[in-house]
Amino acid sequence: MAKMGIDYSVVGKRIKERREALELTQRELADLIGVSPSFIGHLERAEKIPSVETLAKLCAAADMSMDYLLFGTIHACDREKCELFRDLQKLMAAYSSRA
Q1: Where do the domains of the chain lie, and which CATH numbers do they carry?
Q2: For 21-72, how does the pLDDT look when each residue is reduced to its tens digit (9 = 90+)?
């Protein structure tokens, strides 16, 4: 079995790509997960390695799975869950705006 290592330069690129796709600044993402904007920059440039707790907060804030962030893998069930979750959020927002 091949050993799966984490390439933090690729992880940093994924963080930056997702942040930009969400149209967030480094400051906005940092505020969402409780770190400094400079720390986000360090992560994106692979100058620092985040803790598991920070990775979990980052994945939650950016709506991505940990396995995608670390290894680039996307499972069909993950995509289905994310789409269903987004649909549910839209329905809840529409319902609450009518109340």
Answers
A1: 8-73 (1.10.260.40)
A2: 999 999 999 999 999 999 999 999 999 999 999 999 999 999 888 888 998 8
State pLDDT tens for residues 61-94: 998 888 889 988 775 545 555 666 667 667 777 7
Q: Which long-range contacts (CB under 8 A, 24 or more apart) does 21-26 make?
A: 22/62, 22/63
Rounded Cα–Cα distance for residues 89 and 98 (Å): 14
Give backbone dihedrals phi and psi of 64, rounded to 5 degrees, phi first.
Answer: -140, 160
Residue with the two structure tokens 């499972």: 75
Angstrom distance (rounded) from CA 32 to CA 19: 11
Distance in angstroms (rounded) separating the CA atoms of residues 57 and 88 = 21
Q: Residues near 10 by Cβ (< 8 Å), separated by ≥ 6?
A: 72
Identify the residue whose tokens are 């480094």: 26
